[in-house]
Amino acid sequence: MPIIKDQQITENNWTFVADDAPLAGGNITVTLKRWLEEKAALKNHAGKVGIRIAPLDSTANLTQEDWSHISLVELEFPAFTDGRLFSAAQLLRSRDGYRGEIRAVGNFISDQVFYLHRVGVDTFEFAETKDCERALKALNDFSVRYQASIN
Questions:
Q1: Superkingdom of this entry's organism (predicted)?
Q2: Overall number of domains in the chain
Q3: Greatest CA separation found in the chain?
């Protein structure tokens, strides 16, 4: 699937591994639940490891040591009308001090990309390249900002 990273369309080199699936090689993401249950094994994974956050997940219990092993945080949007992950992105950057990649995945729309970027999301995964092209333009929708942001 194509992604927008560093404001360019590129290919995704990460694989999400479901909780009931065996760990794959390469760069993988797992659910927060799986990270908490299997972190000892995941810390020794040959590739990079990331976590996938759902709207009800909380990262408040992750330690700085956990964050040092997490290379990517995916925010999984169940519906474009669910805004809880906007707050999660902002908390990852401000409260948790996370400086790695934060990626929006799932059911969000290109109209939300500008606002997601303002709260700390820096990568966006879409099902189709045409959606990436539309979203890339949306990153520059507004030139004046009235509120403070992460970026």
A1: Bacteria
A2: 1
A3: 47
What does the pLDDT look like over 100-143, one tens digit per residue?
Answer: 999 999 988 788 888 888 889 999 997 666 676 777 777 666 55
Show contacts of 41-49: CB within 8 Å, 24+ apart: 42/69, 43/69, 48/14, 48/72
Q: What CATH number has the domain bearing residue 60?
A: 3.20.20.70
Q: Whole-angstrom distance between the N-terminal and C-terminal Cα of the chain?
A: 26
148 within domain boundaries: no
Q: What is the DSSP string of 33-87?
A: HHHHHHHHHHHT-SS-EEEEE-TT---TT--HHHHTT--EEEEEES-TT--HHHH
Amino acid identity at 84: R
The span from the CA of 14 to the CA of 20, in Å, is 18
Residue 147 — very low, low, confident or very high, per pLDDT cuts 50/70/90?
low
Residue range 5-50, pLDDT digits in tens: 887 888 899 999 999 999 988 999 999 999 999 999 999 999 999 9
How far apart are alpha carbons 146 and 134 in whole angstroms?
A: 24
Q: Which domain holds residue 49?
A: 2-138
Q: Does 143 map to a domain? A: no
